[in-house]
């Protein structure tokens, strides 16, 4: 009787776990689909504007194009493997596929961090108080964007190239000792010095760009506060309306930065907790996977608040003129 009771309890626990994983899979599917489509929509808009409507191009479009591209890849390559696992599927994947998925995810995560930091810095310079010390930077910052973005792609691709050598697909489902990208990949060989070098470079990069975000955000808040006080004292509607677009764009960037920092620290805490924990916690892993994809998912919808080109009729009209010509 006791054996049957234990067996029944074990069966109920297993069914409950399957139900929880399936529910999580549904939420992750919605998150991945919304994030991927939102980022693809904005990326298409930036590319269309760049090639077809150059007179409508904004200075920050180059940064945001890289951001939406990186976010769409992050959502896709982070979400799809976990969706597959959540629905109880375990497809056979090769070492090459495992390396590719993890490598793209790590590189695009670094790009997302850099572009968010660059966008906040760019906006801080844009709204900076006019003066001699800011004039040269305002006039030349646009020329630095694309070279710095390509340089960032190269740096991240080189920094995470170690993944290509150290990661392999999991063949045995019971082999969970050194999982690095659950549930399909693991570290094939461990080199303490190489691991320390990679983790140190990641910590330095993250700390540098997070500090840059914080400094630029504090500066933007200071400028907006001063402007608000000035507008109240002058009570000039012309001044307020003239600065409205810049103020709206600044508020959008501040929202992005706050969201990135918030989800970054939650993700870091969950990763540290899981690494120092006594055993693998699948539910904690599910939560961490969901949190990791939150920023790239909500990012395009925050940007859409400051984007009035999506609903413009000239998009359809221009396509009609091209067709008839």
Task: Walk me through the structure.
Helix 2 (61-86) packs antiparallel against helix 9, helix 3 packs parallel to helix 6 and helix 3 packs antiparallel against helix 7. The chain is mainly alpha-helical. It is globular and about 70 Å long. 79% of the residues lie in helices and 3% in strands. It has a single domain, classed as Rhopdopsin 7-helix transmembrane proteins (Up-down Bundle). Residues 176-180, 237-242 and 318-325 have low confidence and may be disordered. The protein is built from ten helices and three strands. It has a three-stranded antiparallel β-sheet.
Outline:
The chain has 325 residues and is mainly α. Helix content is 79%, strand content 3%.
Distance between the termini: 83 Å
What number of structural domains do the residues give? Answer: 1
Give the radius of gyration: 23 Å
Mean pLDDT, as a whole number?
77
How many strands, what sense, and barrel or not for the largest sheet?
A: 3 strands, antiparallel
CATH superfamily: Rhodopsin 7-helix transmembrane proteins
Q: Report strand %.
A: under 5%
Structural class of the secondary structure composition? Answer: mainly alpha
CATH structural fold name = Rhopdopsin 7-helix transmembrane proteins
With strands numbered from the N-terminus, the spatial order across the biggest sheet is 1-3-2
How many distinct beta strands? 3
Helix count, per DSSP? 10
Q: What would CATH call the architecture?
A: Up-down Bundle
